[in-house]
Specification:
Blueprint (H helix, E strand, L loop, with lengths): L1 H8 L11 E2 L9 H25 L11 H7 L4 H22 L7 E2 L2 H16 L2 H7 L4 H8 L4 H7 L20 H40 L1 H6 L20 H18 L4 H19 L9 H4 L4 H8 L14 H6 L6 H15 L4 H8 L11
Antiparallel strand pairs: 1-2
Helix pairs in contact: 1-9, 2-4, 2-12, 4-11, 5-9, 7-8, 9-11
Amino acid sequence: MAASNASTAFSPSSSPSCHLSPQEPLLPWISDNVLAIILPTIVYAVAGAFFHLLDTYELFGNYRIHPTEDELKRNHITRWECLKGVVRYHVIQISIGLLLNHGASPPMVGDQACRIHDAANMVHNARRIIPIILNTIGIDAKQLSHAAQGTSPTLASIIGGGDDHLTSIMTSTAQNHLTPFDFALATFSTNILVPALQYLVALIVVDTWIYFTHRLCHVNRTLYRLVHAQHHRLYVSYAYGAVYAHWLETLFLDILSFVLAGEIARLSPRQSMLFASAATVKTISDHAGYVFPWDPLRFLNPNGARFHDLHHQTWGLKHNFSTYTVFWDNLLGTTWADRAGAEKRYERVWALTGGKRVQEVQGQKGVDKGVTEEVY
């Protein structure tokens, strides 16, 4: 339906008037640039508070990776000390964001009709190369196009390059031949494909940067002792302690990775706020210490709360360095492979505290055995 509307809304014979203008902010009282800086902190506070309530009132305790007694016994800092470090993290993050965006103007955007029309021209010009390629490899594109005309005019147009003259490429008359297919593909590319690729590039940049800098902090003893060891004072992590870290780690591991991702992927302020907020939820979830059987993220990505919790244990420090995916850990052999050994260690902790995990109960009943299916 959207493709149909797109094809009728734009005239193939003339390009719409293209004028760039400042984009209106999502909220009238704050610019998108500033909102993109502070929204992840708001998301962090809300998500952290939610899991803190679960901890405080011992809700869903059977889904916790560690018993409460284990947190009190093994962590080397109090929750209050952790909270002060987390506040410092966000002050640094917001301050640097405001500094980098000082004096930044609102993004200049063109009319949607103009952007889709330009994309349709690009699609059309790209399609006109198809018959040249077919002819080069010995396939008569014109004959094949005529043969397909009766059954699929759209396919015939694609094979024929959208023109009667198969060898005319990127001529000034291109826009006079734009088709509904050109506009449909242009609409899809502009609204879905290009943003999806931008998010994918941003994810690759962040995941790669954090994996190798994080691993370096464990390989280099000096870096670990002076910088990264602060984060590992939490052997039993909890949600709002997710970004408790040395200020150097805050700068060079976390903030710099997202600055690079935004620049390389060319994210707009609105894309940045969505990407950073989603990453914040992921980070909070990984450190919350809960493995819920209904958590949809567990089925999309094996890098979850249990995956990262293992890294926080003394026996797992050299494994599971990735934050968002398991790509680099799997590729470079740093994923924890002894699943049975990890399970025994976790079970021993619960046995010492007199607790009983939900996996045991459900395993006896044959219910939801997938609750432990995360990568160890």
